[in-house]
Amino acid sequence: MKISIVTATFNSGATLRDTIESVLRQSYADFEHIIVDGGSKDKTLDIVREYEPLYNGRLRWSSEPDRGIYDAMNKGIARASGDVVGILNSDDFYTSPDVLEEVAKVLTDNDIDAVYGDVHYVNDGNLGKCVRYYSSRRFHRSWMRFGFMPAHPSFYCRRSVYEKFGTFALSYKVAADFENLLRLIFIHRISTRYIPKDFVTMRTGGASSSGLRSHKQIMNDHLRALRQNGVYSNFLFLGLRYPYKICELAITQICNMFNHK
Fold it and tell me: How is residue 185 annotated by DSSP?
């Protein structure tokens, strides 16, 4: 089973090495890494060229102007030749070397369309300290009307599902991932399986975690996605996510305190 990993880059020179090295450390060898660059002006492409020989033909990359990260992801999925596709952002990296191995193991069951797991967040100054653990363990399809979704960086889906039901809608500024998962999981009810594993280490400060304005945009995008897909919701429903996130943060802080004792 071949797995396609799609990474969108744009001036990602400060973080891309971590992303690439985590891919090259994977114990599962049947993968391709597709890097879709939006025309970087920093050292991003120099880094890609530096590591390209280590892939032994498993790296494909391009650089051209695009319409943003979701456009780049769509291009990557369209170019993918693997049976399964996952997204690994250019400021994130795999938490352990056996992530793809676990994905492939579960998806040998042809009745499962997609898998997902957990991720955790770190600050750029200390990549070894978890500041928030995002678990998808309790996720249920019905929760999507409240704005919940499985951790998208841990989502690995059969390419045939994207071909049948579509990829990312570019009209959403910061929540096209939610709209896509809503369409796949809630509307078309694809078969999914949770893997109890920390897939990805994510740096804080991305498009979906960068302040009050970002969260307001997310709320608006989520509500529009739900309405456009015929799923009833409202701002009160969507607001229920935030106490849950606060609990996640509190639990992480408590665990950090105990770990340091």
Answer: I
Residue-wise pLDDT for 134-185, tens only, equals 999 999 999 999 999 999 999 999 999 999 999 999 999 889 999 999 999 9
Complete DSSP assignment for 81-110? -SSEEEE--TTEEESSTTHHHHHHHHTTST
Beta-strand relationship, 31-37 and 126-134? unpaired
**Long-range pairs, 60-66, Cβ under 8 A, ≥24:** 60/32, 60/33, 60/34, 60/35, 61/34, 61/35, 61/36, 61/37, 62/35, 62/36, 62/37, 63/37, 63/38, 63/39, 64/37, 64/38, 64/39, 65/38, 65/39, 66/36, 66/38, 66/39
Beta bridge partners of 4: 32, 85
Q: Are 180 and 114 in contact (CB under 8 A)?
A: no
CATH fold for domain 3-259: Spore Coat Polysaccharide Biosynthesis Protein SpsA; Chain A (3.90.550)
Q: Tell me the two tokens of residue 164.
A: 């049948």
Identify which of 183, 4, 201 has the alpha carbon closest to the alpha carbon of residue 86. 4
- Whether the Cβ atoms of residue 3 and residue 77 lie closer than 8 Å to each other: no
What are the extents of the domains in the chain?
3-259
Per the confidence metrics, is the pTM higher than 0.70?
Answer: yes
| CA dist., res. 10 & res. 247, Å (int) | 33
**Which residue type does 28 have?**
Y
